[in-house]
Amino acid sequence: MNQKKYENITFEIEKDKAFLTINRPPLNVLNIATMEEMNDAITSLIDNKDIKVLIISSSGEKAFSAGVDVAEHTEDRVEKMLQVFHDVFRNLSKLDQVTLAALKGLTLGGGCEVAIFCDLIIAANNLKIGQPEIKLAVFPPIALLILPRLIGLKKASELLLTGKIIEAAEAEKMGLVNKVVPLESFDSELDVFIRPITELSLVGLKYSKKGISLGLETTFTEGLEKIEKVYLEEMMASEDAHEGLKAFMEKREPVWKNK
To answer: Catalytic site residue 133?
Structure first.
């Protein structure tokens, strides 16, 4: 396992998986220094052809993250805070890899935004998740963009306009998380959950993610036209697309090159 040293996070690479762990227990609050380290780790994966999935988790069982440090919302620091925080999402959006948030405990505010921006979410049954910013007379920009796409306008508005905190079962029921598992078996359940991803070609994952994003950003007609272009001009120009089709016809397991 390869590991780069940071003060507020840990970042480890194990074969085709990268693990970014927020390491500021007990609440794993996101201050500027932590988010700068997150950005450094995330950008190191851009154009990486070996890693297929980035797992973002946290130290301890009490909280994935209770959010961005309120002390840095001061008038003289809020602009930098917001820029560094939003760079996390700009950088995540550049990744070909599948991003997965692994949640335990409190997942609030900016912590919730990091989680819901990931492609997938697995949560322990002690999850408590929400966007309480409205109670401070402010709003969460990323959540305003993402939540209505994830769970629909009415449920998103309920969470955003009341600051309601919900538990794991309700989050799973409304489609906010993919799977809820027992806290005591979380690590083994996480391994099982990500195994199918690591068996796939990074090429297929990359262009599937790109197609999903294009479909959300445009009308059906425009989206289909753009997705067709990605399919024919980018994905079908890859070695792995041809290998996957050839392996299927030859009734054998594909040998991925991730290119």
So the answer is: yes
**CA 97: distance to chain centroid?**
10
Of the listed 113, 158, 184, 222, which one is catalytic?
113
Active site residue 243: no
**Residue labelled with tokens 């950003």:** 217
* 3-class SS of residue 254: coil
Of the residues 37, 72, 133, 172, which is catalytic? 133
Task: State both tokens at 27.
Answer: 């609440």
What amino acid occupies position 244?
A: G
Query: Whole-model pTM?
Result: 0.90
Contact partners, residue 164, CB within 8 Å, separation at least 6 = 130, 158
First to last CA, the chain: 23
pLDDT digits (tens), the chain, 259 positions: 556 789 999 999 999 999 999 999 999 999 999 999 999 999 999 999 999 999 999 999 999 999 998 888 777 788 898 999 999 999 999 999 999 999 999 999 999 999 999 999 999 999 999 999 999 888 999 999 999 999 999 999 999 999 999 999 999 999 999 999 999 999 999 999 999 999 999 999 999 999 998 888 877 788 778 888 887 888 888 999 888 888 888 999 999 988 8
